[in-house]
Specification:
There is one protein chain. The chain is an alpha/beta fold and 297 residues long. The protein has one domain (10-248): TIM Barrel (Alpha-Beta Barrel). It has helices at residues 9-19, 30-38, 48-54, 65-79, 94-107, 134-151, 163-166, 169-181, 195-208, 229-235, 245-264, 277-284; strands at residues 22-25, 44-46, 83-86, 111-115, 156-161, 186-189, 213-217, 239-242. It has an eight-stranded parallel sheet, with helices on both faces. Helix 4 (65-79) packs parallel to helix 5 and helix 5 (94-107) runs parallel beside helix 6. The longest helix is centred in the last third of the chain and has 20 residues, at 245-264.
Length: 297
């Protein structure tokens, strides 16, 4: 058995999920990834929504594969944690899905998820989405899995279905079963509306795919109620992502501070809410006057 230090990111994440439900907060940049690691989390997540809005564009599939890989590489290097990364609809058809798996692996990701929406995609908690036919998504999953096996590094292929909000719960289960049969390591049911649905979904999937892993999306202000990670663990989910939580916290604070700065003309009123210079230096591992060591994966 490999030691943790000799494992690939995918192997590390698989090992952790074999033992417990892993919480993966969203890292919208490298500094946030360092904070997530320092807080004691075992993994982090690169969200398509957070990556898009950080670039000043909406989450509708506008950014390139190269843009996503740059963010993944920075997050993986800075945090040193296994990274689960959003791949939207795979940046194209089957050949591009294969390339995406290869490039994400090279960038340092532990795994990715693909979704079964038509392009241009929409946030999973918005109405008006359209889905590709099941056999179209199955083909993408199969190509992704072949690339995973070619790379041979334990990379995780997660298939997301938005079926619940478009075709209904039963259709979402049927799609998930088809994606698992196509080779997906993990299934991500998006937009489930209750704790009971998450529990029933886990049972229904594992009737046909007992070894398949399950990922839950714990996003805010959407169709899913706030559910503790402990309950997801009890229901049989191996991973819970918090895609935009840290970005929302950060931008909420930024917006309030800007309003106060504009009104008062100085920062004194919110100085106590800031990370100090020393705290920032500590987070990035910097000591003035000494060489800084680049992180090595």
């Amino acid at each position: 058995m490999s030691t943790t230090s000799s494992m690939t990111p995918g192997q590390r994440l698989r090992s952790a999920m074999n033992d417990r439900c892993v919480m993966a907060p969203g890292a919208f940049n490298a500094l946030c990834a360092r904070a997530i690691a320092r807080a004691g989390f075992e993994a982090c997540y690169v969200s398509g929504a957070a990556t898009s809005v950080s670039a000043g564009v909406p989450d509708v599939g506008l950014l390139t594969l190269e843009h996503f890989c740059r963010v993944i590489r920075e997050v993986a290097d800075a945090g040193g944690l296994p990274v689960i990364a959003d791949a939207d609809t795979g940046f194209g058809e089957a050949e591009m899905v294969r390339r995406t798996v290869i490039e994400y692996t090279r960038a340092g990701a532990a795994g990715l998820h693909l979704e079964d929406q038509k392009f241009p995609k929409r946030c999973g908690h918005l109405d008006g989405k359209e889905l590709v036919p099941t056999d179209h998504m199955v083909e993408k999953v199969q190509w992704a899995c072949r690339a995973r096996d070619e790379m041979g590094e334990g990379f995780i292929i997660c298939a997301r279905t938005d079926g619940r909000g478009v075709e209904g719960y039963d259709a979402a289960v049927a799609r998930a079963r088809a994606y698992a049969a196509a080779g997906a390591d993990m299934i991500f049911p998006e937009g489930l509306s209750s704790e009971d649905e998450f529990a029933k979904f886990a049972v229904a999937l594992r009737e046909k795919a007992p070894a398949c892993l399950l990922l839950a999306n714990m996003t805010e202000f959407g169709k899913t109620p706030l559910i503790p990670a402990s309950k997801f663990a009890a229901m049989g989910y191996q991973c819970v992502i918090y895609p935009v939580s840290m970005l929302r916290v950060a931008m909420g604070a930024v917006s309030k501070a800007l309003t106060q700065l504009k009104a008062e003309g100085n920062v004194e009123g919110f100085l106590g809410a800031m990370q100090t210079r020393q705290e920032l230096y500590d987070l990035v591992g910097y000591k003035p006057g000494t060489p800084w060591n680049w992180p090595v994966r």
